[in-house]
Amino acid sequence: MGQGDDSLDLELRGLGDRGGSFSGRLALRLAVANRQVIGDLDDEPAVWGFENATASHSGMVLVDGLNQRESIDSLNCQSPGADIEFFATDRDFQVARLADRFAYPKSTSRYRHTIIMAANAKSRYAVSVFEVEGGLQHDQIYHGPAGSSDWKTTVSCATWTKLATI
Predict the structure, then answer these.
(1) Which has the higher per-residue pLDDT, 162 or 56?
(2) Entry pTM
């Protein structure tokens, strides 16, 4: 939404109907005024395989500290991708949702990410809602560009774990 210094770009990525065998299945990226604020470790050159782990993808929720496929054996099997829905694709109001019923197939009954963007003549807003049902511990992770001082977070949750900033 917007252009130049007034731009807000929120991108929710996921595997479509043909998923891969790796465990990083969903991703969130955010740019403000054409500057990346939230990105992924897989934006960087692949080094040692961590770029395929759930924890390498911004905005994702780790359930019980596991990758989304839950076991090493599951990584070797291809599975279908996420269910992708667009509720509104208006110029000033956009909503997208990815529900991945194949992420954490044993631990969760819901693993769903919804993003909402809204704008008026003066402001642009982005809201990200991640729903998880199941598991005992949920940790949400965000990665910012290396050396960036632009990124700040405010969280009203009683339990919050910031695992990494790139």
Answers:
(1) 56
(2) 0.74
